[in-house]
Write a structure and sequence with these properties.
The chain is 39% helix and 41% strand. The chain is an alpha+beta fold and 239 residues long. It is elongated and about 115 Å long. The chain crosses the membrane at residues 53-82.
């Protein structure tokens, strides 16, 4: 009875052990496959996010490039249409009318007639001149200051600034005294004109341009004589 029972149980336990082991291996394999599937899903999501970010950057760069091209084309078209030119100052006439100088190195009386033109060569816009500050000098010494208030110059036009310069009692340095004595002996008196002005003009409705225009010239006057200056192209320049 016992042997029969053990024989019956023997095959049962022998079959049961492999079945249990096989079942364990099946469960372990199924768990590993789920883990790999999860990793693959995470990687796919990361790839989607990366590709989405790349496409967003590509679109952004494309939009920026188009904006730069459109802006450049617009500015170029406006430039071709308006052809902006910087307004400037030009000396059209100058004459040394009187010069009284003594041996003590003092300019007792200096009278100079000077005409400066404020020119606007733009064909489509008016220009404004402001902060006009000029000076007449002799060998580094300022003899007189010339100024003007804010004024406008119409397109393709000019406005004359006529100065009647009078300077008295200007003491020269030893170097200036020596230069003045030599100039009077040679009947050629050098006088310098220098200074700057602020220019403003518009280019359509897009921008208002502002530049400093600077002038620096040396005139050689026939004096004693008729006081006229030797021909010179004296106009201001903008950086």
């Amino acid at each position: 009875m016992s042997s029969t029972t053990e024989a019956a149980r023997g095959p049962h336990y022998a079959d049961a052990a492999p079945t249990a082991a096989g079942g364990g291996e099946a469960q372990h394999y199924g768990h590993g496959r789920k883990r790999r599937n999860g990793v693959q899903q995470i990687r796919q999501e990361e790839r989607r996010r990366s590709s989405g970010l790349v496409w967003a950057l590509v679109i952004l760069c494309t939009v920026l490039a188009i904006g730069v091209i459109v802006t450049g084309a617009t500015v170029f078209a406006v430039y071709l249409h308006y052809k902006p030119k910087t307004p400037y100052l030009l000396v059209s006439d100058s004459r040394l009318e009187r010069l009284v100088y003594d041996q003590s190195g003092t300019i007792r009386d200096l009278q100079l007639a000077l005409t400066v033109l404020a020119e606007n060569s733009n064909s489509k816009t008016d220009a404004t001149f402001s902060r006009v500050n000029l000076a007449v000098g002799f060998r580094g010494a300022e003899v007189a200051l010339l100024r003007a208030g804010t004024f406008a110059v119409p397109r393709r036009s000019f406005l004359p600034l006529r100065y009647q310069v009078v300077s008295v009692g200007r003491q020269l340095s030893p170097q200036g005294m020596e230069a003045m004595a030599g100039a009077l002996r040679e009947s050629v008196v050098p006088l310098d004109l220098f200074g700057k002005a602020r220019t403003t003009w518009k280019v359509g409705i897009f921008a208002s341009l502002q530049f400093w225009t600077r002038i620096s010239c040396r005139f050689l006057f026939n004096y004693p004589g008729n006081g006229t200056a030797m021909p010179i192209d004296c106009r201001s320049k903008s950086p």
